[in-house]
Amino acid sequence: MTALTLSTAAASGLRADAIVIGVAKGTRSKSGDLVVAPGAEAVDKAYDGRLAAVLETLGASGAEGEVTKLPAPAGFKAPLVIAVGLGAEPEKDETYDAEALRRAAGVAARTLTGSKKAAFALPLTDAADAGAVAEGVLLGAYSFDVYKQNGKDGAKAKNGKAPLAEAVLLGGKPRDAAFKGALARATAVGEELNRARDLINTPPNDLTPQSFAAIAQTAAKEHGIKVQVLDEKALTKGGYGGILGVGGGSAAAPRLVKLSYTSSKAKKHLAFVGKGITYDSGGISLKPAGHNETMKCDMSGAAAVFAAVVAAARLGLEVNVTGWLALAENMPSGSAVRPGDVLRMYSGKTVEVLNTDAEGRLVLGDALWAASEEKPDAIIDVATLTGAMMLALGSRTFGVMANDDAFRAAVHEAAEEVGEPAWPMPLPEHLRKGMDSQVADIANMGERMGGGLVAGLFLREFVGEGIPWAHLDIAGPAFNEGGAFGYTPKGGTGTAVRTLVRVAELAAAGDLG
Predict the structure, then answer these.
(1) By the 8 A CB rule, do 128 and 418 touch?
(2) What three-state secondary structure class fits 203?
(3) What is the pLDDT of residues 406-441, one digit of tens each?
(4) Residue 482 in contact with residue 491, Cβ under 8 Å?
(5) How far apart are CA 40 and CA 55, in angstroms?
(6) What is the pTM of this model?
């Protein structure tokens, strides 16, 4: 993990491999020329005020994510300047928003793979800006190389280069409580989000329901979190028919993990529920060729919940947070659930299984009812649930559904605040009828059109009466199959971790609506 420090030192005198500065597309003049962002004054002065002109000559435009390298000016101890595009320059009297800083820092951190130390001279107006830059550095420097030769210690990245070892945030105040707090928060959230990425990227032959549960137990012990693991015997005794049905076809038995973080000063209790299908073949309703290769990511929701609970504990938030990880492997075999089977869920409700590839809603149904029994103030579930949501919102935005409009708005606003693109989605009542079953209380499939909304309506059936609930369908952004961008790597992204942490912070402050 990249080490983070704050410094008031001058950029010219800092020994480092590179100095990172920000540039932007000018908006305050008619020319629209490239502008150098605050924080880079020392570099610009050393170039006799011509830094923007030099960068334009090299092709820089200030576009978001653009990287331009040039030699550091004479007298600087760092040999290289890296100019990162921040997008459009803010309007007069406004500052660069946190997400622009976060993305720029992430791009720079990825660019600096193989470097030992870099100084980040990005615009820091306050402690929140420092936190955004720090978070971007940690997330952008991430790499998953455990399975590569000589990479067991996690230190090797592509081409045998290690991630950036140290980042110094210039303009940060190392003795200021607010700045130190922002750095501590960024570290806790960044490290736990990267832990979620590690889990998502781990191949399914190593990450089974049992091994995931063991990892959760170890982390819980380290951070003072109470943990309970229900194995197949306990699940059978408790009547968790959804989890058992989905996991019945695999040699790796299912688990339900409960993580409880409590604060003596808490006035609110949140429950987070995560879909944890460690591998999804589709079961008897086998996925077609070309759709199996990334199905190790089908536990991204559980990874996000796990990481968020640990982050809440590390931050000492004054709110009680219970995480439920519904873990199973969905495989075809002689013991697998079949289309046409009827499962009795933990709530007592029966479900006719029409498609075994609609398994996430089955394990979540059991976990949602278990969470509801504790009567929390609110429940949020997170799941890579439907391809329909990807068709609706693409690969970078997740859908937010809820049984309460105000709560849905609060969760959506929290997501946008931390830089996780989300969009509020409805739960149209007319779609519920499509899940009527002749032999059971409900079927696990309904109308094909609006399938993501149908899945949300199914989950709503297993939420206790009177409890505000939101459903995050992260099927699109949970796993990035394209190239890295901003602070987002290829592979597991850790989507929803920051949203859940922010919701917990708002609940602790009494600001969740």
Answers:
(1) no
(2) coil
(3) 999 999 999 999 999 999 999 999 999 999 999 999
(4) no
(5) 13
(6) 0.96
